[in-house]
Amino acid sequence: MNSVPPRPRGGRDAAVLRLRGLGWRIALTLIGLVLAWRIGAVGVVQLYSERLLPEAGQQDAADAARQVLNWQAEQPEALYVLALDQMERTPENARALAARAYGLNPTRAWPLVLLAALEESAGDEVRAEQLATLAAALTPVNPDVLEPVAEYWESRGRLDEALRYWSRAVEAGSPRTSAVFRRFRELLMTPEGLAAFRSLAQRPPAWWEGFFVETADRATDLALVQALYDLRRAPGAAPVSAQEHLSFVSRLLREGDFGAAYRAWVDSLLPVQREQLGLLYNGGFELPTTGVGFDWHLVKHEHATIDRAPQEGARGQSLRIVFRFSRSRFENLYQPLHLAPGAYRVSGRYRSDKLYSDSGLRWLLNCRSPEPLVLGESRRILGNEDWDSFSFEAEVPAGCPYQELRLASADARRMDGATDGTLWFDDLYIESIAELSPLERARLDARRADEPDRGQVSTGTEPAPITEPSAQQVLDAASGTSVQD
Description:
By secondary structure, the chain is of the alpha+beta class. It has two domains: 175 residues, Tetratricopeptide repeat domain (Serine Threonine Protein Phosphatase 5, Tetratricopeptide repeat), CATH 1.25.40; 175 residues, Jelly Rolls. 45% of the residues lie in helices and 19% in strands. The strands form two sheets. Strands 1-4-9-6-7 form a five-stranded antiparallel beta sheet, with no helix packed on it. Strands 2-3-10-5-8 form a five-stranded antiparallel beta sheet, with no helix packed on it. Strand 2 and strand 3 form a beta hairpin. Helix 1 crosses helix 3 and helix 10 packs across helix 11. The radius of gyration is 33 Å and the shape is elongated.
């Protein structure tokens, strides 16, 4: 490495203390098991039962180890416990005891971890490195060994080696994975840590996706999430997973960075999906809906089914909504938008098959941030009609960076007696126009003047705010399954 960062959390002394503390926890458990067997064999289990508990303390464990050695002088676990007990007072004795313990049982890695700590304290870093590497090689899937070895390398300023052993510990199912992830986030806030993660992000291990999602979801600095995402999108890196894209876009939306969220969502699209891009995405419903980012979101409704199907009079697939005597307001189909300020025309085709409804349904173009506001709406759709077209105009004001196109019950203040029948939609399209027509502007102003509450997006009955789906839903959508939130 060109430069060695300061040794975090106390450097060598802190690493030794952590090794010792973790070593005592393991040792106390080992000596308890050995004594339970050995002393039980001679019928005096009760004599030492209280001193065999892991929480009994270092001195009790050392006394118990001496009792075992009185019975069997070459017991490796007891020798290891005594080595830990003498680590500070008489390091030379501790070194000899640990060496004897390892010689009696070369399959045990803990004496090597202790010897590495002793050599580190004595200043023999080359020998310490050799012992730490050998300990990890003996137990390649034991987090209790791999994590102290990782901390040893961190104390030496070798973050590349530390990350390698931490990664193996997490892959082995470490119960301290959350703590390891917290440490990763601390390291990523430093230039040295960010550099060490670069090669890891090129070919991310199995735990990476979970780490990225947890980091994006937690109240960490957005700059850290952006840095992680940039590492994954560097030249030569493996493709970013659907769940990584989803978590990143969701975080950007929560932060109100709608432009960056839209760009990240576009970057996540496959070539066949990019062909459906426009001011409105997939308006012909030829591709499965994913519920991700700026795609269509289909929210589950108790008395309505939303899916895609072919229909006579339409090309390819169309969107189909089947109502089953619903008595609740419908507003369960929407697409988030990122339109620039200006005037727009929304158009499309629809077919209604025996659609009974007191109020009907209509399309709404709404502003969602910073304040909910109806920007334009279509005429009511109901009855029994063959394929017909609709269009309406709307104006996105400056200061409204986040919008949505939503299909909703036409009367927000009154529940329908029942809604039954089938609706089809196809060829939905949004285009930019120079300005609202005089007639459309007059209609919009008149509607807002006559019914002020119509200018606000309803809050008491509308669905929850725009949310993102689970990882499984994303994977289902990628395989061609239509998603409903």
